[in-house]
Amino acid sequence: MALSICLLGAYPFYPMSDDSPSYPRHTDLPISAAVPGTVAMHEEPTPPKRPKLIVFLAILGMILLIAGIAGWKAMQITQAIAMGKAFRMPPDAITSVKVKKETVFPVLETVGSLASLQGVMLSADLPGIVTSIQFESGSHATNGQLLVQLDTRQEEAQLRTAAAKLDLARQNLERAKDLSAKRVIAQSAYDETKSQYDAARASVDETQATIDRKTIRAPFEGFIGIRQINAGQYLKSGDPIVQLESLDPIYVNFALPQQHLSKLHVGQSIRLQADGLPDKVFKGAISAINSMVDTSTRNIQIQATVPNPEHLLRAGMFAGVQVLLPNKESAIMIPATCVQYAPYGDSVYVIATMKDPEGKEYLGVKEQTVTLGKTLGDQIEVLKGLNEEDEIATSGIFKLHQGGAVKIDNRVQPGNNPAPKPADS
Prior knowledge:
Helices cover about 20% and strands about 35% of the residues. Mean pLDDT is about 80; it is low at about 1-40. The longest helix has about 35 residues, at about 50-85. The protein is rod-shaped. The chain has four helices and 21 strands. Among the domains are: about 90-100 and about 330-425, Beta Barrel (conserved putative lor/sdh protein from methanococcus maripaludis s2 fold), CATH 2.40.420.20; about 125-235, Helix hairpin bin (Helix Hairpins); about 245-325, Efflux pump adaptor protein, beta barrel domain (Elongation Factor Tu (Ef-tu), domain 3), CATH 2.40.30.170.
């Protein structure tokens, strides 16, 4: 196959084949010499050379661009660091209170259960049919008042028979007594007549006792509950009839740990507040202290008596009890909202004047570890860690930190009442 040669800018291109006519070829002269600017077929083209100056300037431009970007970023970082050092968090708004000692009346707090001075479920002593009910549910009953009458017709008939025999025995005894005084009859005959009289009298008493046992009366003054029976109902022995409770005064039973036993005595004052009566505080006194300590709980049972003239307290109610201790104490009491509780220790935030790194003064807080004592309403006692006239934060403590700036706003204060009421909480 014939080859074609392209002479750039001088000769046209002629395709050749085996059948085409032959033309003279100038092979004896070099192409480059005969025709300038041409490339021989057996030679490779040489790429044009770039100037060194252009390459140098490009590299220099890249270096300067990178240096400029790095300098700009360094300037931004430096400015951000300076702004971070100069930044100050705005002060947190809190409330505060100054620490001072207060005279408190220590109490022992516990819970108790109310029990009536006298209380009983009246029941049938003997079986019988209810013939009449002489009370209304929830009414007041006096001592000895008739409440329920069972059927006693058979006993009443037996009583009349026994009374007739007693009358006959009495007459026989009177005759025998006269005859014995005149020594008409033997002493044994008189003794037999007197024995018959005593037996007749006992029979009357026995029948009367049976009637009384079927007549249920109030054993003491109190309030009647809801009746459990109806007229015409047959009662077996022991069937419940109605609850009877004496409510004035009333007992409150409670327990205290044995370590407080030395602080307790009969006649000691107590305060009582029952669920359902939040606005009423009842006063009473300890009436009995148990003779032994419970071995399972190491608590001692105590009973106090509380006047209840309005009958507001009822047996079985749950109540909070405070036993008043005689000694007055001077203690540092702070609101319970001041305390930050933690496993490693309880603490409060004390407000003080501080200085920032530039030496400027500001109002800040420092965390102070405290040892706590007993609680009294909204307050808690501080045994160690605070001094009088210290100013502490009372609210907003969860957003505070050591050295943080604060702003005091005491327009609204948290609860700080040693005897709060539910309406205050």
